[in-house]
Amino acid sequence: MNKVLIAMALSAIFVAMPASAESSGYVGVGVGEAETDSNNTSYKIFGGLQVSQNFGVELAYNDFNGYRGQRADSWSLAGTGTLPLTMGFDIFGKLGATRNHIKFGNSSHHTDLLAGVGIGYNFNRNVAVRLQYEDFGDLPTDINGRTANVTNWGLDVKYSF
Question: How many domains in the chain?
């Protein structure tokens, strides 16, 4: 729980940072493969604010599809760090909090640490693609007392404005 609180505090710092002349907003969509108790196609929508060349904040919704015959999804808020490379490439990481949701009869939630890394390619100032790996921590405990960790490999398209 302390890790989650630290991640939320770091994310809040990024949100509170004043926007500068180089800040830009972005939105995007993604598709990937989530691993819960099985491998499932996942979908993602996200948006964020790049407050400087190296730091930003991102809010995302992920649909992991099936988990023990039920739907699994997540809302997350993370601080991001980006290191520009050459020829339009960059590497990035994210650290934040995620609220994982499962519907087993009654809805069940679990808040956990979100961590991710990836590589991006910027086609131009506005359009980029990203390949990333994210660990969303544990899903909520099911009615039999079992839980599973959820991870996701994803390919995203991002539009900056």
Answer: 1
- Supply the pTM of this predicted model: 0.84
CATH code, domain with 19? 2.40.160.20
Structural domain for 14, as ranges: 2-160
Q: Tell me: the pLDDT tens digits for 89-138?
A: 999 999 999 999 987 666 688 899 999 999 999 999 999 999 999 999 99
* Interval 43-84: pLDDT, tens: 999 999 999 999 999 999 999 987 887 889 999 999 999 999
The CA distances from residue 134 to 71, 95, 106, 143, in Å, are 19, 10, 27, 26
Q: Are 74 and 61 in contact (CB under 8 A)?
A: yes
Beta bridge partner(s), residue 141: none
Torsion, Cα 68 137 40 89, to 10 degrees, reads 180
